[in-house]
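User: Design a sequence. Structure:
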């Protein structure tokens, strides 16, 4: 029977070896959390990097590693430290990531890392060819693997290949600065269907294809030789039930089975019933606007001093790509900002910011979502931002206010939240005032609409829509060839 082959750099689990024992932890990031739900409900094989380098895996543990991955429906692509350096920390996260998020000044253009990127993409393509049959459907994910579709198509012209980009596709003016822009576009065009989170990213991509490759684009279809490639937007949803059910269970927890975090948050609520908890959760990434958010919060405290001791900002930042210098600098900047703001405003009974720099288990994420009165998510640029959707899904009593950056892909579907420009501190401060004072009825009215939409356009629907479109596209292409 035909199956789906999912392929991404990051697998849904990350393996570690401690004292000869293999442990698996869930991966953080929208791609992994979203696709995990799709993968667990289907007969698919997920190919990717295990998080361990070749040098880290003793020969005798290799079979155990493969077995551990098989239990999660996964298969690994082995990468050396040098490959991870050039492909992952290098071209993927020092060239493409900053460029696609409009941080042009952070982008490094090095031919050595481009060469490694190509070689590693070929490794992923080979892994697909080795692990799949002719009629399997191949679904390639994200900016780390943009050359894979062309590499697979070259060997398997009849395969149905889908590609989904989880980050923004930048405007032509930004994309054209990349020395290897044409190679990247040709790589993507090996797919039969190319999906983006929003219509804007789709439009930017089509414009680059037209202007850089001079190809004929009619509406959202591209003609290349004897093939028709479809380009479309599919805004990714969340596993709505997983989050809303977890929140319901969370509320029923008795003191005995509450987590330490839930207990502490409850104590905080009881001792300061009028104080508002403001939450932000992101990977520690410059695209998320964490430093600006802290400055905006400081601005708010200065502009509206009457709210001192009445609000608390919880920042949960997950360590991410810490070998890349920009991430190390950002970590330092955030540490200093938190220290400065807490030093300036704290009183004996109040610390304005609680800052956690770590990954947390799912239960604790739910503790934070359900205990917070306001979510403040201010990315400077974000492909989607699933955290915004997860926050709303956990609000079982429909209270809570979401303040969300217009620069997040999810803002397109979340008009009922308070949308802000992350560079406009006055607007953020005013939105905080509006959120703090918003009547419960208004919160509930806004969240009722948001929840209905998120429940309907959940991650399952997203994956089904993409798959349906991919299979239709394969049919169209076959008919086109046989004409
Ligand atoms: P990105 O993909 O850029 O990291 P998203 O907001 O789309 O941003 O996705 C982040 C995902 O990672 C969410 O599904 C969220 O639940 C998960 N996540 C974020 N922070 C943590 C954390 N501290 N611990 C565990 N999971 C987290
Ligand atoms: C974003 C990217 C994903 C990536 C995730 C976490 O969501 O779109 O491809 O997996 O961030 O980043 P990491 O570098 O840890 O895989």
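Assistant: Done.
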């Amino acid at each position: 029977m035909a199956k789906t082959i999912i392929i991404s750099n990051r697998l849904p689990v990350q393996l570690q070896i401690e004292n000869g024992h293999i442990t698996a932890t869930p991966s953080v990031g929208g791609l992994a959390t979203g696709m995990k739900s799709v993968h667990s409900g289907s007969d698919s094989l997920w190919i990717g990097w295990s998080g361990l380098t070749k040098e880290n895996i003793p020969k005798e543990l290799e079979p155990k590693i493969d077995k551990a991955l098989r239990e999660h429906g996964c298969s690994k692509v082995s990468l050396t430290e040098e490959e991870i350096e050039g492909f992952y920390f290098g071209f993927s996260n020092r060239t493409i990531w900053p460029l696609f998020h409009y941080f042009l000044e952070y982008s490094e253009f090095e031919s050595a890392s481009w060469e490694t990127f190509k070689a590693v993409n070929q490794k992923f393509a080979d892994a697909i060819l080795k692990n799949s049959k002719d009629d399997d459907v191949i679904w390639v994910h994200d900016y780390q693997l943009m050359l894979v579709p062309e590499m697979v198509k070259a060997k398997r012209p009849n395969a149905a290949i889908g590609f989904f980009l989880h980050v923004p596709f930048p405007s032509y003016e930004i994309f054209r600065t990349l020395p290897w822009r044409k190679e990247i576009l040709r790589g993507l065009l090996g797919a039969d269907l190319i999906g983006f989170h929003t219509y804007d990213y789709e439009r930017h991509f089509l414009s680059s294809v037209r202007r850089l490759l001079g190809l004929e684009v009619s509406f959202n279809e591209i003609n290349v030789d004897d093939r028709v490639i479809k380009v479309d937007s599919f805004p990714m949803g969340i596993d709505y039930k997983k989050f809303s059910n977890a929140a319901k269970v969370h509320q029923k927890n008795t003191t005995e089975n509450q987590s330490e975090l839930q207990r502490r948050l409850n104590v905080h609520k009881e001792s300061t019933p009028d104080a508002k908890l403001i939450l932000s959760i992101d990977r520690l990434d410059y695209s998320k606007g964490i430093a600006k958010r802290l400055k905006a919060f400081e601005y708010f405290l200065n502009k509206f001093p009457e709210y001192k001791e009445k609000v608390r900002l919880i920042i949960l930042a997950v360590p991410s790509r810490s070998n890349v210098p920009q991430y190390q600098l950002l970590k330092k900047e955030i540490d200093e900002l938190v220290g400065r703001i807490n030093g300036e405003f704290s009183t004996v009974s109040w610390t304005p910011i609680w800052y956690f720099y770590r990954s947390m288990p799912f239960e604790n994420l739910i503790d934070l979502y359900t205990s917070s009165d306001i979510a403040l998510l201010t990315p400077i640029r974000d492909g989607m931002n699933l955290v915004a959707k997860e926050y709303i899904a956990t609000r079982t009593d429909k209270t809570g206010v979401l303040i969300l950056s217009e620069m997040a892909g999810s803002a397109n579907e979340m008009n009922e939240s308070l949308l802000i420009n992350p560079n406009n501190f006055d607007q953020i401060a005013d939105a905080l005032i509006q959120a703090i004072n918003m009547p419960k009825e208004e919160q509930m009215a806004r969240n009722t609409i948001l929840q209905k939409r998120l429940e309907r356009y959940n991650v399952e629907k997203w994956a089904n829509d993409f798959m349906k479109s991919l299979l239709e596209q394969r049919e169209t292409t076959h008919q086109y060839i046989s004409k």
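The chain has a mean pLDDT of 95. The radius of gyration is 23 Å.
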